[in-house]
Structure formats: C-alpha cells, structure tokens
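It is worth pausing here to work through a concrete case rather than discussing structure prediction in the abstract. The textbook approach is simple: state the sequence, then state the predicted structure, then interpret. We follow exactly that order.
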Amino acid sequence: MGDPKFPHKKYSTPRHPWEKDRIDAEKQILVKYGLKNKRELWKGMELLKSFRSQARDLQARMRVNDPNAGKQFQALINRLSRYSILNQNATLDDVLTLTIDDILSRRFQTIVYKKNLAKTMKQARQMITHGHVILDGRRVTVPSLLVEGHLEDSILYTEVSPFTDDLHPMRQVILNGVQEQEVKPESEEKETK
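Step two, the predicted structure:
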C-alpha cells in the first residue's frame, strides 16, 4: 500500500528521453498552455492515456457482450461530458480520438485566460496561485484543476482582489486588447470592400 507521505507518481516519463521531435512538440505545448514544467504535461498525457485505455478495454468487452460494459461506458461518457470534453451522445471512437489539447484546454489556468481575466497564460497561472480568482464562490489556487463545464461561468475575480476594479491598469490592458481584437475584423472587412 505504501506510506501516505510518499504518494505514487501520477505520470510516467517518456521511454526515450532524447527524441528531438517529441521534445520540440512538448516545448510547443508548454508555451501554448503556459505549463510550469513537463511534469504537468505528462500528467495530462497520463489522464488521456487512462481515458483511451478504458475505451479500448470497453470496446473489447462490448464485443463479447459483457453486461457491465454498457454501464461503465456510460460512466466514462458522463465523466467526460461533465468536464465538457465530449458530449453525452459520444461513442467509444470519439474517446479514442481525444488529444492532449482536449485535456489541457479544460485546465483552470487555460479557462481563466480564455475568459479574458488575464492577458497571458503565465499571468493567469500567477493570478490563480496568488488567490485572485474564484471558482464557484471559492478561492482555488491550483492552476491544473480540471474545470467542470457548468462551473465555467462562475470563474471571477475575488472580492478583495485589486483586479475587480475596472480602472486597474492591468484590466485596462486586457479591455483594450479585447476592443482592438473586435475592431480589427471590422476594419479588415472595410479594406476588402
């Protein structure tokens, strides 16, 4: 069982540590999602591997008409739909086609950035760890938390955070960035006409 002071790893390292193509691909993902280190990426990969292995196992069990396979398949789909990774009418093939981007896009840090509460992924991580963001009315300081779909609208700044003020300099940068992005397509449309 093991000592509770020394929990087992929640990830596995690559079999071949010095593959240039894999290292370059991992670096791009680290930058894209603002991950602290490769361990966070490997944890996401391990979660994806778990979902896909469950789907392969269920696929084999459904071929031999296992009565419990249908219940376990529905439980897997319910879990993935709760996190808005897949919808309720997904199939096992949909689970097998999931990618690491599907998993990493449901992280708390990514959603804070996508909701425009921070101007960069790294700033989103910093705001979360410093306690400036709440999820469902509670302060959450874990950037790697997978956010359920129905809780996505409850992500806000904390009441005591200085970022709640619309006149905060950082908020002005974010708001101006949004306005510039919205204005650019209109000006491009005028140029094309």
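Step three, interpretation. The longest strand covers residues 133-135. The mean pLDDT is 90.
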